[in-house]
Amino acid sequence: MRTERAYVHWVRGFVRFHGLRHPREMGVEEVEAFLRWLAGERSVAPSTHNQALSALLFLYREVLGVQLPWLNEIGRPKARERVPVVLSMAEVRRVLDAAAGVEGEVLHMLYGTGMRLMEALRLRVKDVDFERGEIVVREGKGGKDRRVMLPQALSAVLAARLLQTRVIWKGDRAEDRGGVHMPDALKRKYPRAAMSWGWFWVWPSERLSIDPQTGVVRRHHLFEQRIQRALRRAAHTARIVKPVTVHTLRHSFATHLLESGQDIRTVQELLGHADVSTTMIYTHVLNRGAHGVRSPLDALGMVR
Question: What is the pTM of this model?
Fold first, then answer.
């Protein structure tokens, strides 16, 4: 749904930029002019520029059914290489100690497993395996499933959370409310699965919401903005001056695993990276100074 909204946004922007002309009347010059305006006047990030181009590709190919070879030849800006923000273990402890309640549970889970925020919030009861000490992440980035560890430190906390969650689930069943959202065509294949305990959210929202696609009133999982706000408050309380986001916990998870001696292939699988080169970025921020090199000033033994 987010992709749909983003594509609609860029297509509308493209049409408005050219005075409400129909896309069928436009071609490579108009597309390149719009993209140049985004890069030059708006100074958008390379990822935003690529998203706008992808939206126009989808518009012409899938919506209008027009095959325009020149669209593939339009240059894409090179992504800027950024070193990820990583917290030390002491800083992570301070942040997590300052996070309480259900938001604190989610933040502990993000750091303890390396999951992305939406992967954690979309977690279903059936995908938590206490016996094997693992969590199955369904439909991660790229539509891939993977397994991550269930931290022993969170096992009892998560078990207690599920007892509270089951009370909410029973209340929804007693009120005969619409079941949770089901991915793909599973709702048609298993009509009752959406109402089952196994498919219920681990962290459901306290409030009901209206599904914007179907109009059905159902219970969604916790909203990501709630967790993001809680992390900002916790980072402020912990007096962390680094720009901390929920993805910072994922960066810290990977870096701390590598520092503890875990091999990079294992970390790659836990993070769900398609290519190990993506995981390699964390080798540049290990706790060994820049590139593991000792400054020559330190060799002089001078202290000022």
Answer: 0.81
